[in-house]
Amino acid sequence: MSMTAWVLIASASAFVIKLAGYLLPRSILDRPQVLALAKIVTVGLLASLTTMNTVSTGQKLTPDSRLLSLLVAGIALKLKVPFIVVVVLGAAVAALGRWAGLP
């Protein structure tokens, strides 16, 4: 199949799923199981996007200074450092990693 066909299929699927969310009655969407599933899927999606944006370049995996930056940011978040400091630390570590020769 061509890339255009895949994009159209993905777009139609996203539209149908979003439309189903509007058409389902509120009583179904307020069930604890549905809410728990929505939370789990959201966390999983964000984790996978973060991972793929950190360790991939195009079609191949390339661990580089971004991975080191993510590790430092994760530690800073665990220590409950203010978010702006987490961002600055992550950027500084990525810059130091690139300065040290990491890709």
Describe the protein.
With 103 residues, the chain is mostly helical. The protein has a domain at 63-103. It contains five helices and two strands. The chain has helices at 3-23, 26-29, 32-55, 65-78, 83-99, and strands spanning 56-57, 60-61. Strands 1-2 form a two-stranded antiparallel sheet. A hairpin with a 2-residue loop joins strand 1 (56-57) and strand 2 (60-61). Helix 4 packs antiparallel against helix 5 (83-99). The two termini are 35 Å apart. The mean pLDDT is 90.
Tell me briefly what this model is.
By secondary structure, the chain is mainly alpha-helical. The chain has helices at residues 3-23, 26-29, 32-55, 65-78, 83-99, and strands at 56-57, 60-61.
Which properties best describe this structure?
103 residues, mainly alpha, two-stranded antiparallel sheet, 5 helices, 2 strands, 78% helix, flat
Helix/sheet category? mainly alpha
Compute the separation of the termini in Å.
35 Å
What summary fits the major beta sheet?
2 strands, antiparallel
Net shape: flat
Strands, helices and their partners?
Elements: H1 3-23, H2 26-29, H3 32-55, E1 56-57, E2 60-61, H4 65-78, H5 83-99
Antiparallel strand pairs: 1-2
Helix pairs in contact: 4-5
